[in-house]
């Protein structure tokens, strides 16, 4: 994952793509920040690929929120800049599952774990994060899991 990010940064630099280069620098800075924090916790190798995927999803979520605020404030050029960054960041994520596939994965995980109430939600979410890192928006998934478990 780190190699992909580094290669993409080099390509953006060679292509003189300022938007991509700026976005890649933001990703690298966030990655270094997380690596430093991980070293403080005794992990000398830095964060794992799953943690990198999680970091990228967080960055996308932040930019979506910013783009929405810019659109609400009638600052379309800033919203478009945020959306351009989102597209670049998303290129590093695996293909996202659609709602039907997410629903099927949630139901399969609930059945596999034998989850029967909202008390089991943490266990279900942990399993989904392990098996589908980077493929789902877990804020939406948590609402779906809660709804399914409440209706059991």
Order of helices and strands: HHHHHHH
Q: Provide the β-strand percentage band.
A: under 5%
What is the global morphology? Answer: globular
Alpha carbon gyration radius: 18 Å
Which regions contain 5 or more consecutive residues with pLDDT less than 50?
none
Helical proportion?
over 70%
In terms of structural class, how would the helical and strand content be classed? mainly alpha
Q: Would you tell me the overall average pLDDT?
A: 90
**Terminus-to-terminus distance:** 39 Å
What is the count of DSSP helices, taking H or I runs of 4+ residues? 7
Structural description of this entry:
The chain is mainly alpha-helical. The chain has seven helices and no strands. The protein has helices at 2-15, 18-40, 49-72, 76-90, 99-113, 121-131, 138-150. Helix 5 crosses helix 7 (138-150). It is globular, with a radius of gyration of 18 Å. The termini are far apart. The mean pLDDT is 90.
Summarize the structure.
This protein has 152 residues and is mainly alpha-helical.
Q: What features would you highlight for this structure?
A:
152 residues, mainly alpha, 7 helices, globular
What is the fold's blueprint, element by element?
Layout: H1 2-15, H2 18-40, H3 49-72, H4 76-90, H5 99-113, H6 121-131, H7 138-150
